[in-house]
Amino acid sequence: MRKLYPYLLLIPTFVIIIMFIYYPAGSALKLSLYKTSPFGNRTIYVGLRNFRQLFEDPEYLYAVRFTLIYVSVSVAITIFMSFIIAYMLTRGVPGTRIYRTFLFAPYAVSPAIAGTLWTFLLNPVVGHVNYFFAKLFGIQVAWLTSKPYAFYALIFATVWKMLPFDMIFYIASIQDVSLDIIEASTLDGANTMTRVWRIIFPLVSPITFYLVIMNIVTTMFSSFAIVDVMTSGGPGGYTTNMIYKLYLDAFTFQKRGPAAAESMIMFAIMLVVTIIYFSFAERKVHYQ
């Protein structure tokens, strides 16, 4: 009985995982092989036709390209800025605790609230950003309704939302770097830039490795609310990424089969990215 007791305690966890993860995933895989009527009262097996039609659809191919660019830019900027800010916050600046509190605040709000806040800030008439642009440069930018500024607006909101999460991890990892190493490099004549990028950054590479994966997942799957609130995929589909295209096909156009196929493609992309990253990037991770 003692050997079975731990497994009995895990039964509720297994039930939840099966009900809310494996069963929906299996249902989506099955649905991707069928064509379903808008009311869901009739299904026709079509095999891989849904996948083939997606790869022949220029709108979907554009959404894939936009997603890759959007994810790459957002993750790169977030990793760079969070490391720099975290390093500065570990230098013993007066009021560091207050700065940390304020900088962590964006992580506490939902993506929908983050999108709403940036919608107000970037409003072409009453937004604070355009107010300063008008005062400094005498211009007003239609951030949410023109190209390429709508893309920039999404990057601002996404980086602002993800930055605190990365920053907290970097603060903890930088504080864990041995002071002996820093002092030895200082005695050897290393300047600040050398210490930061040649010593500290490689030593916190396990955290960078983890954050890159988490940021990719977050940007791929949790960006729906930001896109929906700020641009609704516009102007003219310019900011429609894969998760928002999936939403449009599933709930606006009632294309349940193609939408399920899109979810499978997103899963496959994340699987491939994770395997490649673990296969190649982990070799350059320095574990202490």
List keywords for this structure.
72% helix; globular; 288 residues; mainly alpha; MetI-like fold; 2% strand; two-stranded antiparallel sheet
Can you put this structure into words, describing what you see?
This protein is mainly α and 288 residues long. The protein has one domain (51-284): Orthogonal Bundle (MetI-like fold). It has helices at residues 5-31, 49-55, 58-89, 96-108, 111-121, 128-137, 149-175, 179-187, 192-203, 205-221, 224-230, 242-252, 256-280; strands at residues 34-36, 43-45. The chain has a two-stranded antiparallel ribbon. α1 crosses α13, α4 (96-108) crosses α7 and α10 runs antiparallel to α13 (256-280). The radius of gyration is 23 Å and the shape is globular. It starts with a helix and ends in an 8-residue tail after the last helix. The model has no long low-confidence stretch (mean pLDDT 88).
In short:
This protein is mainly α and 288 residues long.
Q: Treating each run of at least 4 consecutive H or I residues as one helix, how many helices?
A: 13
Q: Spans with pLDDT under 50 lasting ≥5 residues?
A: none
- Outline, from the CA principal axes? globular
Sheet with the most strands: spatial strand order: 1-2
Distance between the termini: 41 Å
Structure classification:
mainly alpha
**How many strand segments?**
2
Q: What series of H and E elements makes up the topology? A: HEEHHHHHHHHHHHH
Residues in β-strands, percent: under 5%
Q: Give Rg in angstroms.
A: 23 Å
Largest sheet: 2 strands, antiparallel
In helices, the fraction of residues equals over 70%
Overall pLDDT, averaged? 88
CATH class category name:
Mainly Alpha
Overall tally of domains: 1
